[in-house]
Design brief:
Blueprint lengths: L13 E7 L6 H11 L7 E7 L6 H11 L3 E5 L6 H11 L4 E4 L11 H5 L7 E6 L6 H18 L11 E4 H6 L10 H6 L5 E6 L13 H21 L11
Parallel strand pairs: 1-2, 1-4, 2-3, 5-7
Antiparallel strand pairs: 4-6, 5-6
Length: 247
C-alpha cells in the first residue's frame, strides 16, 4: 500500500526505476550493486523497484532490501502486467527531476548511469548502447533484425533500444503515450515531443542467474507488429505547449 503522505522520490534528483518479475536469484546481488553505486552517483538518487506480480520470492526479498536501505522504495502491481506497464507505473510514481531505468537481470551495471548523467542537462533522454554484448548469437541476430526494422519505421536513429540503461527528464517521460511494447519505442516517443536523444556505449554482461523473459515472439515478431501501431499513433499524436496562463 502506498503512503498518502509525501512522495519521497521528490527528495532526490534521480529515481532509478527497476522493474522486477521473478528475479529472486538476482535481487541480493542487485541490492549490493545499487548500495555501492548510490553514494557515487553524480546526483542524489534513490531506487524504485516495481514488482510486476512476481510469482517467486521477489516481492519479499525486495521488501527486505527496502527495510535495510534508506534510499530504496518499492511498489507492487496487483498482477503481472508486462515490462511497459511496470515502467509506466514507476514513471507515474516518480517525482524527481530525472528518472532512470535498468533491468534486474544484472546484465548492465548501475555504475554506468554516471556516463549517461554527464549529458542529461543537454538531452531529454540519454541511453546506453550495449558494447561487446554478452548474449547468444541467436539473440544478437534477432535483436539486430528488430532494431533495423524499427529504425526504418520510426526514423529514430537509435541503434539499440533493447539496452535497458536509460535516463530521461521526468516531465518528458510522464508525457510519453504508454502502451504495451512501449519500452521499445521510448527514444522515438521522446522525439515526438521534440526531445533530444543521445546514445552512449555502456558495459554488458552475461546473465548468471534467473531466466530471460524474452523469446522469439517478444524479441522479434511482436516488435514488428508494434512498429505499425507506433506509425498509426505518430500521425495522431497531440503535441502542444502552453504559452501563458492565469489559472
Amino acid at each position: 500500500m502506498m503512503s498518502s503522505g509525501e512522495n519521497r522520490t521528490g527528495r532526490y534528483k534521480l529515481t532509478i526505476v527497476v522493474p522486477v518479475y521473478n528475479e529472486e536469484d538476482n535481487i541480493r546481488a542487485l541490492e549490493r550493486r545499487l548500495v555501492t553505486f548510490l553514494p557515487a552517483c553524480k546526483y542524489s538518487a534513490c531506487v524504485l523497484f516495481v514488482n510486476d506480480g512476481s510469482k517467486d520470492d521477489s516481492r519479499n526479498l525486495l521488501m527486505m532490501a527496502c527495510g535495510r536501505n534508506d534510499h530504496f522504495y518499492c511498489i507492487s502491481l496487483a498482477q503481472n502486467s508486462g515490462l511497459s506497464a511496470a515502467m509506466k507505473a514507476g514513471v507515474d510514481v516518480t517525482c524527481s527531476d530525472y528518472v532512470g531505468y535498468m533491468d534486474a537481470d544484472m546484465q548492465t551495471t548501475p555504475e554506468d548511469f554516471n556516463l549517461l548523467l554527464e549529458h542529461i542537462d543537454e538531452y531529454e533522454m540519454v541511453m546506453g548502447i550495449r558494447a561487446n554484448r554478452e548474449d547468444s548469437w541467436s539473440k544478437k541476430i534477432q535483436s539486430k533484425i528488430a532494431n533495423g526494422f524499427r529504425r526504418m519505421m520510426t526514423h529514430d536513429g537509435v541503434s539499440d533500444t533493447g539496452c535497458p540503461l536509460k535516463v530521461m527528464h521526468t516531465d518528458y517521460a510522464k508525457r510519453v503515450p504508454f502502451f504495451t511494447g512501449m519500452h521499445r519505442f521510448l527514444p522515438a516517443l521522446i522525439q515526438l515531443q521534440h526531445g533530444r536523444v543521445m546514445q552512449i556505449p555502456v558495459r554488458h554482461f552475461p546473465r548468471v542467474a534467473g531466466v530471460s523473459k524474452y523469446n522469439l515472439w517478444n524479441r522479434l515478431v511482436s516488435p514488428f507488429v508494434d512498429c505499425f501501431a507506433y506509425r498509426w499513433m505518430k500521425k495522431r499524436y497531440i503535441n502542444y505547449a502552453i504559452r501563458e496562463s492565469n489559472v
